[in-house]
Amino acid sequence: MVNFICACANNGFEYTRYTAFSELLPLLAVGTTPLLKVDKICQEIFTSSLTIDNSITFSSPFATFTSTASADFEVRSPSRIQVQFKEGSFQPPKIKSNVSLPENVDIFGQNVNLSPLQQTLNPLQEAVANLAGVISGQSPLKISIPGERSKSWLLITYLDKDLRISRGDGGLFVLAKEGSPLLDQ
Fold first, then answer.
1. Which residues, including other chains, have CB under 8 Å from residue 87's CB and lie 6 or more apart?
2. Phi-psi region of 136 (alpha: psi -120 to 50; beta: other; left: phi over 0)
3. What span, in angstroms and rounded, lies between the C-alpha atoms of 13 and 38?
């Protein structure tokens, strides 16, 4: 049996490599649209405060966007925790100082050349850099997560130094530890 606190004692990011969590699937689908992709989905566990942050980061040629769901957890057994989500937050977008579009993008099976658009955007680079400075100092938008749907559980079914497989009432999660060679695959 795995001791959850010992398993997560290093505190650190774990990156989702696979999930069957149905509520994440629409977010993953967004990442298949042209010019927007899912950069990372990760979980950070803080054993000293018994809290968890689940976050997803999207990237576009213009900015990156991160949203986080924060939760408290209680250890129920050596391999099971009870989770209570408290709030969601949306970080201000990180505006990129240099807009770099791909040369071509596939939209509904059509290959669209974006070179003319890139040339049009070049004069706007300075304005974008100024906007980035204004937005970066803003506070995140925080929203409380009330109700019964905010409660969940998580059971560790496999754990080694690089990999954690967990299941919960939301589905199956396969996570690789930060620094793991599994993240390079």
1. 69, 70, 142, 143, 144, 145
2. alpha
3. 16
Per-residue pLDDT of the chain (185 residues; tens, 9 = 90+): 344 544 554 555 576 776 766 666 666 676 667 778 888 888 888 888 899 998 989 888 888 899 999 999 998 988 898 999 999 999 988 887 777 777 888 877 888 888 877 777 767 766 766 776 777 778 899 999 988 888 999 898 888 888 888 898 878 888 888 777 777 76
- pTM, two decimals, is 0.76
Give residue for tokens 């690089």: 162
Q: How many residues does the chain have?
A: 185
**C-beta separation of 165 from 172 below 8 A:** yes
